[in-house]
Hints:
The protein has 54 residues and is mostly helical. It has one helix at residues 14-45. 0% of the residues are buried. The chain crosses the membrane at residues 25-44.
Amino acid sequence: MADKQDPDGIVLTEAQKRSRRNRSIAIALALGVLVVLFFAVTMVKGPAVLNRPL
């Protein structure tokens, strides 16, 4: 069990870091658009959303 491993772990290239950042931004924007869409639909439906039988 005397394996020598690099203490830094996996080191990404600049292109991989850029790609990861762009992907994260795209996911965040998609999630934000989805939240705004759900909010807008709820506002359009109005208070009738809350007046339903359980």
